[in-house]
Amino acid sequence: MAIKKTELYSSLWAGCDELRGGMDASQYKDYVLTLLFMKYVSDKYKGDPYGMIVVPNGASFDDMVALKGDKEIGEKINKIISALAEENDLKGVIDVADFNDEDKLGKGKDMIDRLSKLVGIFEGIDLSANRADGDDLLGDAYEYLMRHFATESGKSKGQFYTPAEVSRILAKVIGISQDTPQDASVYDPTCGSGSLLLKASDEAPRGLTIFGQEMDNATSALARMNMILHNNATAKIWKGNTIADPQWKDANGKLKTFDFAVANPPFSNKNWTNGINPQKDEFDRFTWGIPPDKRGDYAFLLHIIKSLKSTGKGAVILPHGVLFRDKAEARIRENLLKQGYIKGIIGLPANLFYGTNIAACIIVIDKEHAAHRTGIFMIDASKGYLKDGNKNRLRTQDIHLIVDAFTKQLVLPRYSRMVALSEIAANDYNLNIPRYIDSSEPEDLHDLSGHLQGGIPNRDIDALQHYWQVFPSLRHSLFAELRPGYSQALISTAQVKPSILNHPEFIAFAEQSIQPFKEWCERAMLKDIPFGPADALPPGASAYRPSMDITPKAIIQRISEDLLQAYSKSALLNKYDVYQILMDYWDEVMQDDVYVLVQDGWQAGKTLRELVAQKGEKLKETPDLIINKAKYKAELIPPALLVARYFQSQQTRIDQIQAELDAASQELESYIEEHSGDDGLLSEALNDKDKVTAASVKARLKLATDTDEKAALKQAQKLFDAEAEGKKSLKEHQEALDLAAFKHYASLSEEEIKTLIVEDKWLASLQTNIQTEIERVTQQLANRVKELEERYAEPLPAITQSVDVLSDKVAGHLKGMGLEWAV
């Protein structure tokens, strides 16, 4: 049975984090990621004479497993890693972490136990077998762990990782396409752990030729491992200071030039001049100006421009200050703009990156069309994000909107526009985005006449014109003319939302808005995808839409883009919001399901996995079914879906019994509460915890002599018996239903499995979420209408009169008390 991606990742992180102890996350990551690498290359290349990595005898992960409990486990693990490193020219790459360091891993038994458990986390996972064709489980797991380690490492130590969401934007805006050849090169002079390079390479159909340089020793080692884990073992990653000692040069000693470049340099590096005299730079990188000594942002940008071919394109993440800071940076900025190298600027939200909380921007470079540049395309994407813990995170829809707007040069109000170079020159080449794009929401102005004389300004009602275009008669149902320029509300605020939801135009709108989804369901053909290993596919499956890639990533790319287009012309609904609904469901549920289906086929829908806790531990998963005390987890089809389709009558009976039990419990609770007070007939039946129970009632009944008390006790006993009988009946019926469902899994046909997974699970959930989005749009209208009604409900004269009346009443009361109201 395939391992679900999210389950693998979360279990890896939970296990590793639990064993970290007092070690800093930035240090502990080196141990965890090294073991992940050893596990991967052992599973993939051990015994393969033609493998990209040679695994010598005695230098595999299996040899590490054999050391569990060994008194010299740390020293021997170091030797195993060293042997693999020596054989594959990976010295200084995979042997950075010292597994025999007592200061970090503990002494004696503490080290033995910690390393034995750490090795055990990876031991039971056959990582090579859990690779859907074209889907990089281990590479993604590596990135998952790096993201979590970056989160835990704090500001000063989390800069080795660029958030994947930002990496995807850079990779998509530099112009890599399906036509980009494999020998095209991509370069990152501050490559960190290599995620930016890999994202850029992934944009080309056959990948790109990768070059990178990273100054930090441990981080450059992460990058080399990351490349191998992503099947890019030939990527060239060099360790060293890019500004002081760039490694990639041509035959003449000049900087080597590349087709593409991406980078996330350290923000405002204060030591960029170490080892270099900028005024005598042998590579002529500072001909457009020398950056300030204490701010190295432009040093990296100029290095990248110089490292691009005459047709080269690049994207660099820099702090917003580079757009408007004066003096030396202003001169560099002006020169670059006059050269035409800057194609566009994308302003990002604050607090995205692990090394800093400040807002950053992406500067997009295009040397190929520099001579004909007449404007800069600007995007203010600062408001599109999701709060995620103590960081902000770009949603999939935010990424898509940025990329669409930039690549298609879309002019969107308060978001994006092409800014002429003449306009920028008139602003002294200041590129601060708010000078050119006002992304603020229009101010909600109060109307003095409306407050003084009453009435809702028609100006505010007209501002909702995009709703009235869809619901032309709804406006007249909600408002009527009061006086010129002002209207009055026809419906109370409490009835606004029900009135809108029940309006014929909204009902028609809701039906029309779900229609693109239904048409998309037909085109998606999810039930027709021939999931499963290639050698296990049914006859004729190879002919199924041969151009369709059925890897998980290809599937979500195909269906999500289709859904986005399906809602491109939908009134009121934002197509990116609908797109996000699918992407969220993919991340939460569907991705894991598809991943299992790709590897095991539709028959995986029958699988019930027994959950067995390790000795002394609790189950980590909640069981779906309990049969004769054995606990089971349904891999793909929750029992509720099976029951809803095949055992509805039994479920209805259980629901009825539950309702009867709830009523019996409520009646019992009310009866006890009524009669268990100090003087109540059940007061003597209270136990030592001041509770009336079936046992305490039974015991008191044997002693009671008062007729009324005995009658009350018998009634309580009757109610306790009724509740107990209800619980017993519910348990018996539920166990019978669970057993029936348990047995039914094995008899499911492939067609039934497809129906349960695709229709009852995936599409039903998505449709519910889209319908919720339709109602949310309507709720926005209802909220605004209510806000306007309440704002102008009482004109000032009416409020003043009300105050006068209340003041007179207060004065009268005070006078009656012998006091005088002073004015």
Automatic annotation (TrEMBL):
Broad EC category: transferase
Segments forming domain DNA methylase adenine-specific: 135-443
Enzyme Commission no: 2.1.1.72
Keywords: Coiled coil, Methyltransferase, Restriction system, S-adenosyl-L-methionine, Transferase
Domain N6 adenine-specific DNA methyltransferase N-terminal residues, every copy: 10-121
Coiled-coil stretches: 647-674
Keyword Coiled coil set for record: yes
Annotated Pfam families: HsdM_N, N6_Mtase
Any GO molecular function: site-specific DNA-methyltransferase (adenine-specific) activity
InterPro entries per UniProt: D12N6_MeTrfase_N, DNA_Adenine_Mtase, DNA_methylase_A-5, DNA_methylase_N6_adenine_CS, Restrct_endonuc_T1M, SAM-dependent_MTases_sf, T1MK-like_N_sf
Domain of life the protein comes from: Bacteria
Cited Gene3D superfamilies: 1.20.1260.30, Vaccinia Virus protein VP39
BP GO terms, sorted: methylation
Catalytic activity line of the entry: a 2'-deoxyadenosine in DNA + S-adenosyl-L-methionine = an N(6)-methyl-2'-deoxyadenosine in DNA + S-adenosyl-L-homocysteine + H(+)
Listed transmembrane segments: none
NCBIfam families assigned to the protein according to its UniProt record, in alphabetical order: hsdM
Family under the similarity heading: Belongs to the N(4)/N(6)-methyltransferase family.
Protein name: site-specific DNA-methyltransferase (adenine-specific)
Organism the protein comes from: Methylomonas subterranea
Source species taxonomy: Bacteria, Pseudomonadati, Pseudomonadota, Gammaproteobacteria, Methylococcales
